[in-house]
Design brief:
- The complex is a heterodimer.
- Chain A is of the alpha/beta class.
- Chain A is about 35% helix and about 15% strand.
- In chain A, the strands form three sheets. In chain A, strands 3-6-7-8-9-10-11-12 form an eight-stranded parallel sheet. Chain A has a two-stranded antiparallel ribbon with strand order 1-2.
- In chain A, helix 8 links the parallel strand 10 and strand 11.
- In chain A, helix 2 packs across helix 3 and helix 5 crosses helix 6.
- Chain B is α/β, with parallel strands linked by helices.
- Chain B has a single domain, classed as Metal-dependent hydrolases (TIM Barrel).
- Chain B is built from ten helices and twelve strands.
- In chain B, strand 1 and strand 2 form a beta hairpin.
- At the A-B interface, helix 1, helix 9 and helix 10 of A face helix 1 and helix 9 of B.
């Protein structure tokens, strides 16, 4: 069985440890975002440096440069580190609205030997242009199918999965995007990752849309479930959905609200995430868990003061082991759950 | 009104402003334990190794040094610019204390700086200490408190941080000398302990034996002990110092999950709930480069700028905050009639 990566089809058993939710090339850069989202007009156009990291650790949107990953040499170095500590594959979630660039992904993958699976689809409503907001389900479906069968425009690089599919308020455009993604999933058998969290009301809406469109929930992952309750996670797992804790290493604060208000994730530390993972494994849903780091800012990368793509392998695995989770169970989550998700078994 | 002894002379209690009761300005921590990343040991702190330094703070000697005059001046000035009033610099003898440089910063920034006398934990003791008697140590402390530190006329205004790691016989000598210097001068004592399940009762017993009243004693790093022990110490009347705000890192890569600020705020809320508001002290214990604004940290103004609003959001009333950041440290630091 083979999976489509940015460098072509690869045997599933070559993928190794897979990070199910990352970004390598992306930008938070939708119209109207900058400089207004920053509360620091004196810093917003500066480059990320060690002197302003403290400020960024209180407000990651203080500086635009922090929210841009676009340098091929830098990101090559980051994935080299991931490879060196035993990493194999990254699922790249920079869908429309996040300024992904599959040509760059291909170059980085070729230079590092790390497999990258590129996602197609649509991010959050607030990132959409008027044109995207007005797309029908069919238009959206066609666009994703094009990325899968012909490749992303101008690069020929093909998508290997769907997502992250953005859900914020389930606007008409977001609902269209979920329904279109569900149809693509149904027709291609591809895996699908939804930016959503565990809010039961929102989960219910999305799950029913997915079911109505005939998606296979065993090929669906719900992202950003780090702070969900055990019961909420069990209910998702019972539907067949993979429950993803993907903010490992994000230990910063959002003091001024930034663009997403209270942001519970901004006050969650790895300690809380480790407790949750242990609880979920003990609660019987280890086979439905995903672990990732959702790198989407410079400050999360090694070159800019963060833990990088190797954080799970270098730091979190030993910490989980210390808490009594066996290495075997952890690697099952990082290799077998993710492979099963891609295969849909 | 009582006065506190700053490096530039006595200052009236109500002129101290926002007080940080536990900080360092020029210091050098001993390297505890084996570094996890020996390849970084002799490197300078730079942005590309910060991630690793957050996994093991002992891994890089440069991180353990506060030594750059311009940087420290700008960090203390930034505290002042954000409404800071007084820094208690508990850098003791043997931690590369450099009193001339600290005096210069006090002069240039206008921040009141209260300096400490005494000795830190065993690993930081100067060689000669093991040969010294309690009386000899006591005399050094009293000299620094009443005549001046090193060859200056600037006096210490606090005894500490007195280091107790395992209650080594030399640490016990220093603690007894501190108790006697306190009785002689009235200066408060600040006692370092870390996760001291065994040591806290020992500290309590020795101070009691020496006749020291607990309301003249600050127990440091009380965010490193469990709730039960914190309450036990508070119940005895000691000042409970939650002094590691902004210290968000791991003490070793595997097991060490250190508390984060939200955890410390929970501890503060618990202490307030149990009726110990008047004994709580808050500080940042800046002793690592990575805690400085210049090196990706939050600096001396962290309590005022980030923690105070955080605590307000968590439902701690302004009045209680004022008690913890103004009135409690004022009460313990001002001892001169």
């Amino acid at each position: 069985m083979q999976i489509m990566t940015v460098t072509g089809l690869v045997d599933i058993d070559k993928l190794g440890v897979i990070l199910p939710h990352e970004h390598v090339i992306m930008a938070f850069d939708w119209p109207g975002l900058w400089p207004d989202v920053s509360h620091r007009p004196d810093l917003v156009w500066k480059k990320v440096s060690i002197e302003n990291l403290g400020e960024l650790r209180r407000n990651y949107c203080a500086i635009r440069d922090n929210a841009v990953l676009d340098n091929v040499d830098e990101m090559t170095k980051e994935l080299e580190i991931f490879k060196k500590v035993g990493g194999g594959t990254v699922m790249e979630m920079s869908t429309l609205g996040l300024y992904g660039d599959t040509a760059k992904l291909k170059e980085i993958s070729q230079r590092t030997g790390v497999y990258i699976i590129a996602g197609t689809g649509f991010y959050l409503d607030q990132t959409f242009s008027e044109e995207v907001k007005n797309m029908s389900i069919n238009n959206m479906y066609d666009m994703m199918m094009r990325d899968i069968t012909e490749g992303f425009p101008g690069t020929g690089v093909k998508a290997g999965m769907i997502g992250e599919v953005g859900i914020s308020n389930f606007s008409q455009a977001e609902e269209n995007s979920v329904r279109a993604s569900a149809r693509v999933q149904r027709d291609t058998g591809f895996a699908m990752n939804v930016h959503i969290g565990t809010n039961p009301e929102m989960c219910k809406k999305v799950i029913s849309a997915l079911k109505e469109e005939g998606a296979d929930l065993k090929k669906v992952a719900f992202a950003h479930c780090d702070w969900g309750s055990l019961q909420e996670c069990i209910e998702l797992a019972n539907e067949g959905i993979y429950v993803e804790s993907d903010c490992f290493g994000n230990e910063f604060y959002v003091d001024n609200g930034a663009y997403d208000g209270d942001a519970p994730w901004a006050f969650t530390g790895d300690g809380d995430r480790l407790n949750a993972i242990k609880e979920r494994i003990d609660g019987g849903i280890g086979h439905k868990l995903f672990l990732s780091q959702d790198i989407c800012t410079k400050m999360q990368t090694v070159q800019f003061g963060g833990y990088g793509y190797g954080h799970l392998l270098e730091n979190i695995v030993p910490m989980l082991e210390y808490r009594g989770v066996s290495r075997e169970v952890i690697y099952k989550i990082m290799k077998e759950n993710t492979a099963r998700f891609l295969l849909g078994e | 009104m009582k006065k506190a002894m700053t490096l530039l002379g006595p200052v009236e209690a109500d002129s101290l402003g926002h007080i940080l009761p536990h900080e360092h300005i020029f210091s050098q921590l001993p390297q505890f334990g084996k570094p996890t990343y020996p390849e970084l040991d002799d490197k300078k702190v730079t942005i590309d190794i910060l991630g690793k330094l957050r996994r093991d703070i002992w891994t890089c000697k440069d991180n353990l040094r506060l030594d750059e005059e311009e940087v420290m001046l700008s960090e203390v000035a930034s505290f002042k610019a954000n409404g800071g009033g007084t820094i208690v610099d508990v850098t003791t003898i043997g931690l590369n204390r450099n009193i001339q440089k600290v005096i210069k910063i006090a002069n240039e920034t206008g921040v009141n700086i209260i300096a400490g006398t005494g000795y830190y934990v065993k690993e930081g003791h100067p060689k000669e200490l093991s040969m010294m008697t309690v009386d000899q140590i006591y005399k050094i402390m009293v000299k620094e408190l009443t005549e001046g530190i090193d060859n200056t006329t600037s006096k210490a205004g606090i005894i500490g941080e007195i280091g107790v790691s395992c209650m080594h016989p030399d640490e016990e000598k220093v603690l007894r000398a501190a108790a006697r210097a306190h009785k002689e001068t009235g200066a408060p004592i600040s006692v370092h302990q870390f996760a001291g399940k065994k040591e806290l009762p020992q500290i309590d017993a020795i101070l009691k034996e020496e006749g020291v009243s607990p309301d003249k004693v600050i127990l440091c790093h009380m965010c490193s002990v469990d709730s039960e022990l914190r309450i036990w110490a508070a119940d005895r009347g000691y000042y409970i110092e939650i002094d590691s705000f902004g210290n968000e890192y791991y003490t070793n890569a595997i097991a060490g999950i250190a508390p984060r600020d939200p955890d410390r705020i929970k501890m503060v809320k618990e202490l307030i709930g149990r009726g110990y508001l008047n004994q709580i002290l808050l500080s940042n214990d800046i002793a690592l480069k990575i805690l400085l604004k210049k090196y990706g940290g939050w600096g001396y103004e962290h309590i005022k700028v980030n923690i105070k609003p955080f605590m307000l959001r968590e439902g701690i009333p302004v009045k209680s905050l004022d008690t913890m950041i103004y009135y409690n440290p004022m009460r313990v630091m001002a001892y001169i009639n």
